[in-house]
Amino acid sequence: MPDHLLEIRDLHAYYGQSHILQGVNLTLGREPLALLGRNGMGKTTLCQALVGLLPTVRGSARFDGQELIGRRPHEIAAAGVGYVPQGRRIFPSLTVEEHLRLVFRRAGAGRDGWTPERIFEFFPRLAERRRHRAGALSGGEQQMLAIGRALLTNPRLLIMDEPSEGLAPVIVDHLVEVLRGLSSQGLAMLVVEQRLAVATALAERIAIMVTGRIVLETTAAALLADVSIQQQYLGVSPRREVA
Q: Do β-strands 33-36 and 18-28 pair in parallel, antiparallel, or remain unpaired?
């Protein structure tokens, strides 16, 4: 069994002639890992590279010993990597239930796997809104739907890109509780975040990305205690942070 669930080595990614990821090295075990950085640093590009959504990627990203680079998105999902994209990417005209049924494959769920019924138990608010069109949901409800959709692929690793984006503080608090619950059930997580408070509440391990490289790996406690690091790499301080 590999020492790390996810092992990224010298990963490079491009948009046309633009060299976005410039030799990313990062490992992830069973514990959550939060990836922080200012806008435009390559965090979303890393997520997309890991789930097979970029055409030009070189280097290595091994998940549970299997190489992800060069595989198609559906193959990566089948291997056990789930993805919650930035902005949710839901279909406004489909109902909540239609979203979940579209993704669900009963044959792959297994006895303890995720099903639409289990998603509704986990997210009671979605059960209440199951026949509502996704475009009519609140931001928090849409994020629940995006997470539920990803869980239906029965991932062992969940990659989430800015899950708290655009959500009110009270909804963010609930989201953190939900994600902590999933982590306690053994689901590994790579969480890209802008909010320092959310990142440090979800993960003890923190990585910071600057211009396509991981420039610092630290702990939540150490980062929260070091205002100079927050200002240098993130442009925030505890007094300015919005929880």
A: unpaired
Q: Alpha-carbon Rg of the chain, whole angstroms?
A: 18
Give me the CATH code for the 6-80+155-234 domain, please: 3.40.50.300
User: Is the dihedral angle over the CA atoms 200, 201, 205, 206 positive or is it negative?
Assistant: negative
The span from the CA of 224 to the CA of 168, in Å, is 22
State the pLDDT confidence band at 242, using cuts at 50, 70 and 90.
very low
Coil vs helix vs strand at 92: coil
For position 227, what pLDDT does the model report?
94
Amino acid code (one letter) for 88: R
* Mean pLDDT computed over 178-196: 94
Domain boundaries, the chain: 6-80+155-234, 92-148
Q: What is the structure's pLDDT at 104? A: 86
Q: How far is CA 115 from CA 18, 95, 108, 152, 177, in A?
A: 41, 16, 10, 6, 21
The predicted structure's pLDDT at residue 109: 55
Dihedrals phi, psi of 79, to nearest 5 degrees: -75, -15
| 41: number of Cβ within 10 Å | 20
Beta-bridged to residue 83, according to DSSP, are 159
d(CA 236, CA 229): 9
Span 30-82, pLDDT tens digits: 999 999 999 999 999 999 999 999 989 999 999 999 999 999 999 999 999 99
